[in-house]
Amino acid sequence: MKYWITVASKDHIARGVAGGYMQANHGKQAALKRVHAGDWVLFYSPKQIMNGTEPCQAFTAIGQAADEEIYQYKTSEDFIPWRRNVKFYKSTETPIVPLVDELDFIPNKKLWGYPFRFGFLEIPEQDFARIKAQMITGKLTILNK
Fold this sequence. Notes:
Helix content: 10-25%
CATH superfamily: ph1033 like domains
Number of helices: 3
Order of helices and strands: EHEHEEEEEH
Distance between the termini: 21 Å
Number of strands: 7
Number of domains: 1
Structural class: alpha+beta
Low-confidence stretches: none
CATH topology: ph1033 like fold
């Protein structure tokens, strides 16, 4: 089992949660191929809205890859992104700044945003556990079946 973070605006992540899927790196397939059924994914939102300027800087969703299928979905005539099905869990939006000093995947605490620049990254299990503990209190509740 592996642990991942994908980066997208909060509004885009909300669409994925509602639809039970994830996209990564503007709909490219490569990142999704690295994820396997049962892997955990944290969704980090630097901004509220994709083209907006209002910051979010929080983990906004958490889920597990539901299966091995990667598929394309036509959202418009000129955009057919790759997707992967995800079981999302009920969680609380969790700001990153209070966690920065505790996270090993962030080597330079002053430049904490640097690891997110590629939009998709693998993180150590202990970092995942720290973030998950802040996002989910109590029993895991699946939002989508």
